[in-house]
Amino acid sequence: MTQATPAGGVPTDPVAALHVETVETEGLGDRSYLAHDGRTAVVVDPQRDIDRFTARLDAAGLRLSHVVETHVHNDYVSGGLELARSTGATYVLGAGDDLRFEHQEVLDGDVLEAGRMRLRVVHTPGHTHHHVSYVLLDAAGRARGVFTGGSMLYGATGRTDLVSPQDTRPLTHAQYRSVRRLAAELPAETPVYPTHGFGSFCAATPTAGGASTVGAQARVNPALVMSEPDFVETLIAGLGAHPAYYVHMAPLNRRGPDPVDLSPPEPVDPAELRRRAAAGEWVVDLRPRGAFATAHLAGSLGFELSASFVTYLGWLHPWDAPLTLIGESPQQVAQARRELVRIGIDHLSGAACGEIRRLAGGDPLRSYPVSDFPGLAAALAAPGSRITVLDTRRDEERAAGAVAGSVHVPLHELTARLDEVPEGEVWVYCGSGYRASIAASILDAAGRTPVLVDDRYANAVRAGLTGG
Q1: Which of 120, 158, 330, 361: disulfide with 270, CB 3.0–4.6 Å?
Q2: Residue 206 in contact with residue 156, Cβ under 8 Å?
Q3: 370-462 carries CATH number 3.40.250.10
Protein backbone atom coordinates (compact mmCIF):
# COMPACT_ATOMS: atom_id res chain seq x y z
CA MET A 1 0.00 0.00 0.00
CA THR A 2 2.98 2.30 -0.53
CA GLN A 3 2.55 4.98 -3.18
CA ALA A 4 5.28 7.00 -4.86
CA THR A 5 5.89 10.52 -3.63
CA PRO A 6 6.94 13.17 -6.18
CA ALA A 7 10.55 14.25 -5.70
CA GLY A 8 10.86 17.19 -3.33
CA GLY A 9 7.29 17.28 -2.13
CA VAL A 10 4.19 15.74 -0.62
CA PRO A 11 1.88 13.70 -2.88
CA THR A 12 -0.71 15.92 -4.52
CA ASP A 13 -3.32 13.17 -4.77
CA PRO A 14 -4.82 12.69 -1.30
CA VAL A 15 -6.14 9.28 -2.27
CA ALA A 16 -2.61 8.09 -3.13
CA ALA A 17 -0.89 9.69 -0.16
CA LEU A 18 -1.07 6.97 2.48
CA HIS A 19 1.76 4.68 3.47
CA VAL A 20 1.95 1.87 6.01
CA GLU A 21 5.34 0.75 7.29
CA THR A 22 5.76 -2.45 9.28
CA VAL A 23 8.04 -2.63 12.31
CA GLU A 24 8.76 -6.30 13.00
CA THR A 25 9.54 -7.73 16.41
CA GLU A 26 10.54 -11.22 15.35
CA GLY A 27 11.45 -12.47 18.81
CA LEU A 28 7.88 -12.02 20.06
CA GLY A 29 6.08 -12.74 16.79
CA ASP A 30 4.48 -9.30 16.67
CA ARG A 31 4.22 -6.38 14.29
CA SER A 32 3.74 -2.68 14.94
CA TYR A 33 2.84 -0.17 12.26
CA LEU A 34 3.63 3.40 11.25
CA ALA A 35 1.00 4.92 8.95
CA HIS A 36 1.54 8.34 7.41
CA ASP A 37 0.46 10.71 4.66
CA GLY A 38 3.89 12.22 4.01
CA ARG A 39 3.56 14.75 6.82
CA THR A 40 1.52 13.31 9.68
CA ALA A 41 1.97 9.87 11.21
CA VAL A 42 0.16 7.42 13.47
CA VAL A 43 1.87 4.52 15.26
CA VAL A 44 -0.11 1.37 16.06
CA ASP A 45 0.77 -1.02 18.93
CA PRO A 46 4.40 0.04 19.47
CA GLN A 47 6.90 -2.11 21.32
CA ARG A 48 8.82 -0.87 24.36
CA ASP A 49 12.03 0.17 22.54
CA ILE A 50 10.59 3.30 20.97
CA ASP A 51 13.84 4.41 19.32
CA ARG A 52 12.89 2.18 16.39
CA PHE A 53 9.87 4.42 15.81
CA THR A 54 11.40 7.81 16.55
CA ALA A 55 14.24 7.05 14.14
CA ARG A 56 11.75 6.45 11.31
CA LEU A 57 9.75 9.54 12.18
CA ASP A 58 12.86 11.73 12.30
CA ALA A 59 14.32 10.31 9.09
CA ALA A 60 11.11 11.06 7.17
CA GLY A 61 10.39 14.40 8.87
CA LEU A 62 7.02 13.20 10.11
CA ARG A 63 4.90 14.65 12.91
CA LEU A 64 3.38 11.98 15.13
CA SER A 65 -0.21 12.90 15.95
CA HIS A 66 -1.49 9.70 17.58
CA VAL A 67 -0.24 6.51 19.16
CA VAL A 68 -3.07 3.99 19.12
CA GLU A 69 -3.37 0.64 20.85
CA THR A 70 -5.74 -2.09 19.72
CA HIS A 71 -5.79 -3.47 23.28
CA VAL A 72 -3.95 -3.66 26.57
CA HIS A 73 -1.27 -6.15 25.59
CA ASN A 74 -0.74 -9.47 27.33
CA ASP A 75 2.50 -10.49 25.60
CA TYR A 76 4.75 -7.44 25.78
CA VAL A 77 5.25 -4.16 27.59
CA SER A 78 3.96 -1.36 25.39
CA GLY A 79 6.04 1.63 24.37
CA GLY A 80 2.90 3.59 23.55
CA LEU A 81 2.75 5.75 26.66
CA GLU A 82 6.41 6.79 26.47
CA LEU A 83 6.25 7.38 22.72
CA ALA A 84 3.20 9.60 23.09
CA ARG A 85 4.68 11.56 25.99
CA SER A 86 8.04 12.07 24.30
CA THR A 87 6.50 13.34 21.05
CA GLY A 88 3.41 15.15 22.31
CA ALA A 89 1.14 12.73 20.46
CA THR A 90 -2.30 11.71 21.72
CA TYR A 91 -2.34 8.24 23.31
CA VAL A 92 -5.46 6.28 22.37
CA LEU A 93 -7.01 3.08 23.75
CA GLY A 94 -10.44 1.53 23.68
CA ALA A 95 -12.77 2.59 26.48
CA GLY A 96 -13.40 0.34 29.43
CA ASP A 97 -10.00 -0.69 30.81
CA ASP A 98 -8.89 0.59 34.22
CA LEU A 99 -5.82 2.60 33.18
CA ARG A 100 -3.75 4.78 35.49
CA PHE A 101 -2.43 7.41 33.08
CA GLU A 102 -3.77 10.13 30.83
CA HIS A 103 -5.08 8.91 27.49
CA GLN A 104 -7.96 9.32 25.05
CA GLU A 105 -10.66 6.67 25.24
CA VAL A 106 -12.42 5.72 22.02
CA LEU A 107 -15.68 3.92 21.38
CA ASP A 108 -17.10 2.03 18.46
CA GLY A 109 -17.69 4.40 15.54
CA ASP A 110 -15.36 7.15 16.73
CA VAL A 111 -13.12 8.67 14.07
CA LEU A 112 -9.63 10.03 14.70
CA GLU A 113 -8.28 12.67 12.34
CA ALA A 114 -4.56 12.64 11.56
CA GLY A 115 -3.56 14.86 8.67
CA ARG A 116 -5.06 13.38 5.51
CA MET A 117 -5.79 10.12 7.33
CA ARG A 118 -8.80 9.01 9.31
CA LEU A 119 -8.95 6.08 11.71
CA ARG A 120 -12.43 4.66 12.30
CA VAL A 121 -12.74 2.70 15.53
CA VAL A 122 -14.43 -0.72 15.43
CA HIS A 123 -15.06 -2.50 18.72
CA THR A 124 -13.80 -6.05 18.15
CA PRO A 125 -13.90 -7.90 21.49
CA GLY A 126 -12.51 -11.40 21.69
CA HIS A 127 -8.81 -11.26 22.40
CA THR A 128 -9.78 -8.92 25.25
CA HIS A 129 -13.09 -7.37 26.25
CA HIS A 130 -12.21 -3.84 25.15
CA HIS A 131 -10.23 -4.69 22.02
CA VAL A 132 -10.69 -2.33 19.06
CA SER A 133 -9.58 -2.35 15.43
CA TYR A 134 -8.81 0.76 13.40
CA VAL A 135 -9.90 1.15 9.79
CA LEU A 136 -7.47 3.41 7.93
CA LEU A 137 -9.39 5.78 5.64
CA ASP A 138 -7.99 8.17 3.07
CA ALA A 139 -9.29 11.69 2.47
CA ALA A 140 -11.92 10.31 0.10
CA GLY A 141 -13.24 7.97 2.79
CA ARG A 142 -11.90 4.80 1.19
CA ALA A 143 -10.66 1.96 3.39
CA ARG A 144 -6.91 1.59 2.84
CA GLY A 145 -6.27 -0.98 5.54
CA VAL A 146 -7.45 -2.27 8.89
CA PHE A 147 -5.26 -2.65 11.99
CA THR A 148 -6.72 -5.73 13.65
CA GLY A 149 -4.43 -6.32 16.65
CA GLY A 150 -5.46 -9.69 18.06
CA SER A 151 -8.74 -10.02 16.19
CA MET A 152 -8.52 -11.09 12.52
CA LEU A 153 -5.07 -12.64 11.97
CA TYR A 154 -3.66 -14.35 8.89
CA GLY A 155 -5.57 -17.62 8.81
CA ALA A 156 -6.33 -17.48 12.53
CA THR A 157 -7.59 -15.31 15.36
CA GLY A 158 -6.15 -14.11 18.63
CA ARG A 159 -6.43 -16.44 21.60
CA THR A 160 -9.26 -15.80 24.01
CA ASP A 161 -8.02 -17.28 27.29
CA LEU A 162 -5.66 -14.56 28.50
CA VAL A 163 -8.23 -12.57 30.52
CA SER A 164 -9.57 -15.29 32.83
CA PRO A 165 -10.86 -18.88 32.59
CA GLN A 166 -14.46 -17.80 33.12
CA ASP A 167 -14.20 -15.25 30.32
CA THR A 168 -12.73 -17.62 27.73
CA ARG A 169 -15.95 -19.00 26.28
CA PRO A 170 -17.81 -15.66 26.08
CA LEU A 171 -14.74 -14.03 24.53
CA THR A 172 -14.46 -16.84 21.97
CA HIS A 173 -18.03 -16.20 20.86
CA ALA A 174 -17.23 -12.48 20.72
CA GLN A 175 -14.09 -13.15 18.69
CA TYR A 176 -16.10 -15.03 16.07
CA ARG A 177 -18.60 -12.19 15.72
CA SER A 178 -15.89 -9.51 15.64
CA VAL A 179 -14.01 -11.13 12.77
CA ARG A 180 -17.28 -11.61 10.89
CA ARG A 181 -18.16 -7.97 11.44
CA LEU A 182 -14.87 -6.80 9.93
CA ALA A 183 -15.39 -9.06 6.92
CA ALA A 184 -18.95 -7.80 6.44
CA GLU A 185 -18.15 -4.09 6.74
CA LEU A 186 -14.90 -3.80 4.76
CA PRO A 187 -14.21 -4.17 1.06
CA ALA A 188 -12.59 -7.47 0.09
CA GLU A 189 -9.44 -5.72 -1.15
CA THR A 190 -8.77 -4.05 2.22
CA PRO A 191 -5.28 -4.99 3.51
CA VAL A 192 -5.25 -6.59 6.97
CA TYR A 193 -2.54 -5.48 9.41
CA PRO A 194 -2.59 -7.68 12.55
CA THR A 195 -0.30 -7.19 15.53
CA HIS A 196 -0.06 -10.86 16.48
CA GLY A 197 0.37 -14.03 14.52
CA PHE A 198 3.98 -14.23 13.32
CA GLY A 199 5.04 -16.74 15.95
CA SER A 200 3.27 -15.01 18.83
CA PHE A 201 1.61 -17.18 21.45
CA CYS A 202 -1.22 -14.63 21.36
CA ALA A 203 -2.46 -16.38 18.22
CA ALA A 204 -4.98 -19.11 19.00
CA THR A 205 -3.55 -21.30 16.23
CA PRO A 206 -0.57 -20.98 13.88
CA THR A 207 -0.91 -18.30 11.24
CA ALA A 208 0.13 -18.39 7.60
CA GLY A 209 1.55 -15.75 5.28
CA GLY A 210 3.10 -12.34 5.57
CA ALA A 211 0.30 -10.31 3.98
CA SER A 212 -3.42 -10.67 3.39
CA THR A 213 -6.69 -8.93 2.66
CA VAL A 214 -10.19 -9.18 4.05
CA GLY A 215 -11.25 -11.08 0.93
CA ALA A 216 -8.43 -13.59 1.25
CA GLN A 217 -9.34 -14.17 4.91
CA ALA A 218 -12.92 -14.88 3.92
CA ARG A 219 -11.64 -18.05 2.24
CA VAL A 220 -9.34 -19.34 4.99
CA ASN A 221 -9.97 -17.77 8.39
CA PRO A 222 -11.63 -20.22 10.81
CA ALA A 223 -14.03 -17.53 12.03
CA LEU A 224 -15.19 -16.98 8.44
CA VAL A 225 -15.42 -20.58 7.19
CA MET A 226 -16.78 -22.38 10.28
CA SER A 227 -20.08 -22.21 12.11
CA GLU A 228 -20.01 -20.37 15.42
CA PRO A 229 -20.40 -23.51 17.59
CA ASP A 230 -17.67 -25.35 15.67
CA PHE A 231 -15.35 -22.34 15.83
CA VAL A 232 -15.83 -21.93 19.57
CA GLU A 233 -15.28 -25.58 20.43
CA THR A 234 -12.32 -25.97 18.07
CA LEU A 235 -10.56 -22.84 19.29
CA ILE A 236 -10.99 -23.65 22.98
CA ALA A 237 -9.91 -27.26 22.52
CA GLY A 238 -6.76 -26.13 20.73
CA LEU A 239 -5.56 -23.54 23.25
CA GLY A 240 -2.14 -24.63 24.46
CA ALA A 241 0.26 -23.30 27.06
CA HIS A 242 1.46 -19.71 26.85
CA PRO A 243 4.57 -18.08 28.35
CA ALA A 244 4.50 -17.60 32.11
CA TYR A 245 5.56 -13.95 31.88
CA TYR A 246 2.27 -13.06 30.18
CA VAL A 247 0.65 -12.76 33.61
CA HIS A 248 2.76 -9.67 34.31
CA MET A 249 2.28 -7.82 31.03
CA ALA A 250 -1.28 -6.47 31.25
CA PRO A 251 -0.81 -5.16 34.83
CA LEU A 252 2.35 -3.33 33.75
CA ASN A 253 0.57 -1.86 30.76
CA ARG A 254 -2.43 -0.75 32.81
CA ARG A 255 -0.21 0.93 35.39
CA GLY A 256 1.90 2.67 32.76
CA PRO A 257 5.38 1.30 32.07
CA ASP A 258 8.47 3.18 33.19
CA PRO A 259 10.57 4.79 30.43
CA VAL A 260 12.73 2.23 28.71
CA ASP A 261 16.35 1.85 29.82
CA LEU A 262 18.73 0.37 27.26
CA SER A 263 21.94 1.33 29.06
CA PRO A 264 24.60 -1.40 29.31
CA PRO A 265 24.40 -3.63 32.40
CA GLU A 266 27.17 -3.39 34.97
CA PRO A 267 30.25 -5.45 34.06
CA VAL A 268 30.84 -8.55 36.19
CA ASP A 269 34.39 -9.80 36.73
CA PRO A 270 35.12 -13.49 36.02
CA ALA A 271 35.48 -14.50 39.67
CA GLU A 272 32.11 -13.02 40.60
CA LEU A 273 30.55 -14.54 37.49
CA ARG A 274 31.72 -18.01 38.51
CA ARG A 275 30.50 -17.45 42.07
CA ARG A 276 27.00 -16.58 40.84
CA ALA A 277 26.84 -19.64 38.60
CA ALA A 278 28.11 -21.91 41.37
CA ALA A 279 25.53 -20.45 43.76
CA GLY A 280 22.69 -21.42 41.41
CA GLU A 281 21.84 -17.88 40.29
CA TRP A 282 20.53 -17.37 36.78
CA VAL A 283 23.67 -16.93 34.67
CA VAL A 284 22.60 -17.06 31.02
CA ASP A 285 25.06 -17.67 28.19
CA LEU A 286 23.96 -16.04 24.91
CA ARG A 287 26.43 -17.79 22.62
CA PRO A 288 25.33 -20.21 19.86
CA ARG A 289 24.14 -23.54 21.23
CA GLY A 290 26.98 -25.51 19.65
CA ALA A 291 29.56 -23.25 21.27
CA PHE A 292 27.83 -23.59 24.64
CA ALA A 293 27.76 -27.39 24.36
CA THR A 294 31.48 -27.43 23.56
CA ALA A 295 32.54 -25.32 26.55
CA HIS A 296 30.64 -23.42 29.23
CA LEU A 297 30.82 -22.39 32.86
CA ALA A 298 29.52 -24.93 35.36
CA GLY A 299 26.05 -23.93 36.49
CA SER A 300 25.35 -21.56 33.60
CA LEU A 301 22.38 -21.96 31.26
CA GLY A 302 22.47 -21.78 27.47
CA PHE A 303 19.89 -19.50 25.81
CA GLU A 304 21.22 -18.82 22.33
CA LEU A 305 20.44 -15.26 21.26
CA SER A 306 18.18 -16.04 18.31
CA ALA A 307 14.57 -15.50 17.30
CA SER A 308 13.14 -17.56 20.18
CA PHE A 309 15.43 -16.20 22.91
CA VAL A 310 13.16 -13.77 24.72
CA THR A 311 10.07 -15.99 24.61
CA TYR A 312 11.75 -18.95 26.27
CA LEU A 313 13.95 -17.03 28.67
CA GLY A 314 10.91 -15.06 29.78
CA TRP A 315 8.92 -18.28 30.10
CA LEU A 316 11.47 -20.09 32.30
CA HIS A 317 13.14 -17.29 34.25
CA PRO A 318 11.51 -16.73 37.66
CA TRP A 319 10.06 -13.21 37.65
CA ASP A 320 12.39 -10.72 39.37
CA ALA A 321 15.11 -13.35 40.04
CA PRO A 322 18.67 -11.98 39.59
CA LEU A 323 19.84 -12.43 36.00
CA THR A 324 23.42 -12.18 34.73
CA LEU A 325 24.32 -12.43 31.04
CA ILE A 326 27.38 -13.90 29.31
CA GLY A 327 28.01 -12.60 25.80
CA GLU A 328 30.64 -12.85 23.13
CA SER A 329 30.57 -9.07 22.77
CA PRO A 330 28.95 -5.95 24.24
CA GLN A 331 26.79 -5.78 21.10
CA GLN A 332 25.37 -9.23 21.81
CA VAL A 333 24.55 -8.25 25.39
CA ALA A 334 22.96 -5.00 24.16
CA GLN A 335 20.67 -6.92 21.80
CA ALA A 336 19.65 -9.28 24.59
CA ARG A 337 18.92 -6.33 26.87
CA ARG A 338 16.75 -4.75 24.17
CA GLU A 339 14.74 -7.92 23.82
CA LEU A 340 14.38 -8.41 27.56
CA VAL A 341 13.01 -4.93 28.25
CA ARG A 342 10.23 -5.70 25.77
CA ILE A 343 8.82 -8.15 28.33
CA GLY A 344 9.59 -6.05 31.40
CA ILE A 345 12.89 -7.61 32.48
CA ASP A 346 14.52 -4.26 33.21
CA HIS A 347 16.93 -4.98 36.03
CA LEU A 348 19.92 -7.10 35.07
CA SER A 349 22.46 -8.08 37.69
CA GLY A 350 25.28 -7.50 35.22
CA ALA A 351 27.04 -9.00 32.23
CA ALA A 352 30.41 -10.45 31.29
CA CYS A 353 31.81 -10.49 27.77
CA GLY A 354 34.68 -12.27 26.13
CA GLU A 355 36.19 -15.67 25.41
CA ILE A 356 34.71 -18.34 27.68
CA ARG A 357 38.08 -19.76 28.75
CA ARG A 358 39.16 -16.36 29.99
CA LEU A 359 35.92 -16.02 31.93
CA ALA A 360 36.51 -19.46 33.45
CA GLY A 361 39.78 -18.19 34.98
CA GLY A 362 41.41 -21.60 34.95
CA ASP A 363 38.39 -23.47 36.35
CA PRO A 364 37.35 -26.58 34.40
CA LEU A 365 34.75 -25.95 31.71
CA ARG A 366 31.84 -28.28 31.18
CA SER A 367 30.65 -29.74 27.88
CA TYR A 368 28.25 -32.29 26.43
CA PRO A 369 27.89 -34.03 23.04
CA VAL A 370 25.82 -32.76 20.12
CA SER A 371 24.25 -35.12 17.60
CA ASP A 372 21.27 -35.44 15.25
CA PHE A 373 18.36 -37.83 14.69
CA PRO A 374 20.38 -40.34 12.62
CA GLY A 375 22.88 -40.31 15.49
CA LEU A 376 20.03 -40.95 17.93
CA ALA A 377 18.82 -43.86 15.79
CA ALA A 378 22.31 -45.38 15.87
CA ALA A 379 22.58 -44.90 19.64
CA LEU A 380 19.23 -46.60 20.21
CA ALA A 381 20.22 -49.51 17.97
CA ALA A 382 23.56 -50.07 19.72
CA PRO A 383 23.81 -53.36 21.67
CA GLY A 384 22.87 -52.87 25.31
CA SER A 385 21.63 -49.32 24.75
CA ARG A 386 20.08 -47.86 27.92
CA ILE A 387 19.69 -44.24 26.93
CA THR A 388 16.67 -42.06 27.70
CA VAL A 389 15.12 -39.91 24.97
CA LEU A 390 13.52 -36.67 26.22
CA ASP A 391 10.94 -34.82 24.13
CA THR A 392 10.75 -31.14 25.21
CA ARG A 393 8.06 -30.01 22.76
CA ARG A 394 4.63 -28.74 23.76
CA ASP A 395 1.63 -31.03 24.22
CA GLU A 396 0.06 -30.18 20.87
CA GLU A 397 3.29 -31.00 19.04
CA ARG A 398 3.62 -34.29 20.91
CA ALA A 399 0.07 -35.24 19.94
CA ALA A 400 1.02 -35.07 16.26
CA GLY A 401 3.82 -37.64 16.66
CA ALA A 402 6.93 -38.37 18.70
CA VAL A 403 10.05 -40.49 18.92
CA ALA A 404 8.91 -43.94 20.01
CA GLY A 405 9.59 -44.61 23.68
CA SER A 406 10.55 -41.04 24.51
CA VAL A 407 9.78 -39.34 27.81
CA HIS A 408 7.74 -36.17 27.38
CA VAL A 409 8.38 -33.13 29.55
CA PRO A 410 7.69 -29.78 27.81
CA LEU A 411 10.58 -27.35 28.19
CA HIS A 412 8.55 -24.86 30.21
CA GLU A 413 7.82 -27.59 32.79
CA LEU A 414 11.29 -29.14 32.94
CA THR A 415 12.74 -27.38 35.98
CA ALA A 416 9.74 -28.44 38.07
CA ARG A 417 9.74 -32.00 36.71
CA LEU A 418 13.43 -32.92 36.60
CA ASP A 419 12.80 -35.90 38.84
CA GLU A 420 10.71 -37.46 36.05
CA VAL A 421 13.77 -37.68 33.80
CA PRO A 422 15.64 -40.94 34.44
CA GLU A 423 19.28 -40.89 35.49
CA GLY A 424 21.95 -41.73 32.95
CA GLU A 425 22.50 -40.50 29.41
CA VAL A 426 19.58 -38.37 28.16
CA TRP A 427 19.22 -37.48 24.47
CA VAL A 428 17.15 -34.30 24.25
CA TYR A 429 15.14 -33.19 21.21
CA CYS A 430 12.49 -30.66 20.16
CA GLY A 431 11.25 -29.35 16.83
CA SER A 432 14.44 -27.63 15.69
CA GLY A 433 17.12 -28.03 18.36
CA TYR A 434 16.63 -24.67 20.07
CA ARG A 435 14.43 -25.73 22.98
CA ALA A 436 16.40 -28.95 23.31
CA SER A 437 19.57 -26.88 23.74
CA ILE A 438 18.03 -25.00 26.66
CA ALA A 439 16.82 -28.26 28.19
CA ALA A 440 20.27 -29.82 27.78
CA SER A 441 21.83 -26.89 29.62
CA ILE A 442 19.28 -27.26 32.45
CA LEU A 443 20.10 -30.96 32.74
CA ASP A 444 23.82 -30.22 32.67
CA ALA A 445 23.52 -27.55 35.38
CA ALA A 446 21.72 -30.14 37.52
CA GLY A 447 24.62 -32.57 37.12
CA ARG A 448 22.89 -34.83 34.59
CA THR A 449 24.34 -36.29 31.37
CA PRO A 450 22.64 -34.76 28.31
CA VAL A 451 23.22 -35.25 24.61
CA LEU A 452 21.76 -32.46 22.47
CA VAL A 453 19.87 -33.56 19.34
CA ASP A 454 20.41 -30.43 17.28
CA ASP A 455 18.16 -31.33 14.37
CA ARG A 456 14.73 -30.73 12.90
CA TYR A 457 11.98 -33.11 13.95
CA ALA A 458 11.21 -34.00 10.33
CA ASN A 459 14.51 -35.86 10.30
CA ALA A 460 13.29 -38.08 13.13
CA VAL A 461 10.56 -39.30 10.79
CA ARG A 462 13.10 -39.90 8.02
CA ALA A 463 15.31 -41.80 10.46
CA GLY A 464 12.43 -44.16 11.31
CA LEU A 465 12.26 -43.08 14.95
CA THR A 466 8.55 -42.30 15.22
CA GLY A 467 6.91 -45.69 14.69
CA GLY A 468 5.71 -48.16 17.28
Answers
A1: 361
A2: yes
A3: yes
How confident is the model over 300-314, as a mean pLDDT?
A: 97
**Confidence class of residue 11 from pLDDT cuts 50, 70 and 90?**
very low
Gap between the Cα atoms of 277 and 418, Å rounded = 19
Domains in the chain: boundaries: 14-255, 270-360, 370-462
Q: What is the largest CA-CA distance in the chain?
A: 79
Residues 6+ apart with CB under 8 A from 356: 285, 287, 291, 295, 296, 297, 326, 365
3-class DSSP state of 282: strand
Q: Confirm if 252 and 77 have CB atoms less than 8 A apart.
A: yes
- Provide DSSP, 51-69: HHHHHHHHHHTPEEEEEE-
pLDDT tens-digit map of 44-94:
999 999 999 999 999 999 999 999 999 999 999 999 999 999 999 999 999
**The pLDDT of residue 237 is above 60:** yes
17 pLDDT band, cuts 50/70/90, is confident
For residue 419, the 8-state DSSP code is: G
CB 213 within 8 A of CB 221: no
SS3 for 18?
A: coil
Backbone phi and psi for residue 73, each to the nearest 5 degrees, phi listed first: -75, 145
Which CATH superfamily, name and number, covers 14-255? Ribonuclease Z/Hydroxyacylglutathione hydrolase-like (3.60.15.10)
Rounded distance between C-alpha atoms, residue 410 and residue 397, angstroms = 10
**pTM above 0.85?**
yes
Q: What percent of the chain has pLDDT over 90?
A: 95
Round to whole Å and give the CA distance between 307 and 360.
Answer: 28
